[in-house]
Design goal:
CATH architecture of the largest domain: 3-Layer(aba) Sandwich
Number of strands: 11
Bound molecules: 6-O-phosphono-beta-D-fructofuranose
Number of domains: 3
Shape: globular
Radius of gyration: 24 Å
Distance between the termini: 56 Å
Largest sheet: 6 strands, mixed
Strand content: 5-15%
Strand order of the largest sheet: 1-2-11-10-8-9
CATH topology of the largest domain: Rossmann fold
Helix content: 40-55%
Order of helices and strands: HHHEEHHHEHEHEHHEHEHHEHEHEHEHHH
């Protein structure tokens, strides 16, 4: 892999720091609008299915140019091209990062320019075709009324978010359930309403070793068999890169994918099967096609008009120069209610890193905390803090022009609220008394979709993937591993037997104290 210059050692970084100190710190978006009638046009960007108004951000043409220089000097475009070319940019695992290939519709394009990519593309499409045939068969099978996805992290959040988001397209007569937590309450609450003969379990796990998923899968199988279920091949399917482990588990119906698909980037693979069953083969292909259009935009639009690039650079500007430590996601569409959770994994598992690709400690901040709720609910909970709290939190509003219901009056009210919130954050309100004073000049980005469809959702998700890529590339981190989740898994394996044995050797005082108390509560000591 080509060595890249660390962002804080580039001339652009120093120039950004100077610019921030001299002008950026006191930049006022209200004054910027007053002096520039073109500001909305200059700082808005159309991309496939998504229109973005960036004009309420704390940014001017000079900052934008310096950020583009930063992208240039840190080799963002080259890193992007290396990803699409199938280079092993996931350096700690020596893996390619090719989720974009999962949504590449045809061979022979630039995305499949080498024999190796061609071969992978062939495998992708063979699996996709088989999976979609299966999805159509399940849709046609009226005896199956409930589909239960058992998986966690990327094997849960993507399909769950997408099935909810595309509710308007979901086949009537089928219910979809998502069980992720090892907490038995979740599986028990789901099973309570199900019958083995009408249930299809999809065991979704890239590795097929994740303890939560394996535990839930075992319990689901026991439940199925204890109620007289025998036909595992009909009622269980596995979605995994580890087909051998699925077979060993006793599941013969399997759909594979590959180690070059990261868990949090896997909704486009066999992990998307619940979505394919829910919205059908054509719907799933439209979802892939929307994402592919965003891939094409990311690969070909000049960086200055490239929406993922502009968003990712803005993220760097806020995190490293303004020092903002979080970003709030406000989707004004209740069907997008799991989007914040999905984006949390995407951003924080990808870019929550403190070392560069060589393992050296970084002296600057990386991923912000992501959080949010669908509008307008958030307005009546934490928006108080967004407007008047001591921290500045950039907000990303997502609005959808066309509703999917016919209830009079609601949608205009919803849209009025999302526009008003963005306006209020920026304009603020002067009040000498203090309590009613809104400082204003609080930044927000406004993403707008014409309609929430499989294609526009695909594009929106791909946009988010690529903006995370851009900030990760500037920061010089590996956005595609997740070693930070391993230690807790190892320690849980050590602690679990101690709950029954009471063995406390080599534990710190707090851990031992908590375990002793939990054992007392359980009546085991
Ligand atoms: O624990 C983190 C993680 O590895 C995620 O990256 C992944 O999405 C999730 O666990 C589930 O992993 P798997 O699909 O292998 O069960």
């Amino acid at each position: 892999m080509m060595p890249r210059t660390r962002c804080d050692r580039t001339p652009a970084w120093a120039a950004l720091q100077t610019s921030f100190n001299t002008r950026g710190r006191t930049f006022d978006a209200r004054a910027a609008f007053a002096s520039d009638a073109q500001r909305f046009e200059t700082f808005s960007q159309s991309a496939p299915y998504v229109f973005a108004d960036l004009s309420k951000n704390l940014i001017d043409a000079e900052t934008q140019q310096l950020l583009l220089d930063l992208a240039d000097q840190t080799g963002v475009a080259q890193h992007r091209d290396a990803m699409f070319a199938g280079d092993a940019i996931n350096s700690t695992e020596q893996r390619a990062v090719l989720h974009s290939l999962l949504r590449t519709p045809a061979c022979g394009t630039a995305a499949t320019s080498t024999p190796a990519l061609n071969e992978k593309w062939g495998q992708v499409h063979a699996t996709l075709n088989a999976m979609l045939v299966y999805a159509q068969a399940v849709r046609a099978d009226e005896a199956i009324t409930d589909v239960v996805n058992i998986g966690i992290g990327g094997s849960d959040l993507g399909p769950q978010m997408a099935v909810l988001a595309l509710d308007a397209f979901v086949l009537p007569g089928k219910r979809f359930h998502f069980v992720s937590n090892v907490d038995g309450h979740e599986l028990a609450a789901t099973l309570k309403h199900l019958k083995p003969e009408s249930t299809l379990f999809l065991i979704a796990s890239k590795t097929f070793t994740t303890i939560e998923t394996m535990t839930n899968a075992q319990s689901a199988k026991r439940w199925f068999e204890s109620l007289g279920g025998t036909d595992i091949a009909r009622h269980f399917a596995a979605l995994t890169t580890n087909v051998a482990a699925a077979h060993a588990f006793g599941i013969s119906t399997t759909f594979g994918f590959w180690d070059w698909v990261g868990g949090r980037y896997s909704v486009w693979s066999a992990i998307g099967l619940p979505l394919a069953i829910a919205i059908g083969a054509d719907g799933f292909r439209a979802f892939l096609a929307g994402a592919h259009e965003m891939d094409a935009h990311f690969c070909s639009a000049p960086l200055a008009q490239n929406l993922p690039v502009r968003l990712g650079l803005l993220d760097v500007w806020y995190r490293n120069f303004h020092g903002f430590s979080s970003r709030s996601i406000a989707p004004y569409h209740s069907a997008l209610r799991r989007l914040p959770a999905y984006l949390q994994q995407l951003e924080m598992e990808s870019n929550g890193k403190r070392v560069d690709t060589t393992g050296a400690l970084l002296p600057y901040a990386t991923a912000p905390v992501l959080w949010g709720e669908p509008g307008t609910n958030g307005q009546h909970a934490y928006f108080q803090m967004l407007h008047q709290g001591t921290d500045v939190v950039p907000v990303e509003f997502i609005a959808v022009k066309t509703p999917q219901h016919a209830l009079a009056g609601h949608h205009d009210l919803l849209l009025a609220n999302v526009v008003a919130q963005a306006q209020a954050l920026m304009t603020g309100q002067a009040d000498a008394g203090g309590h009613r004073n809104f400082p204003g000049n609080r930044p927000s980005t406004f993403l707008m979709l014409d309609a929430l469809t499989p294609a526009s959702l695909g594009a929106l998700i791909a946009l988010q993937e690529h903006r995370v890529f851009v900030s990760g590339a500037v920061w010089g981190i590996n956005s595609f591993d997740q070693w930070g989740v391993e230690l807790g898994k190892v320690l849980a394996r050590d602690i679990e037997p101690r709950l029954s044995s009471g063995e406390m050797t080599a534990l710190d005082g707090s851990t031992a104290g908590l375990l002793a108390r939990l054992r007392t509560e359980q009546g085991t000591s």
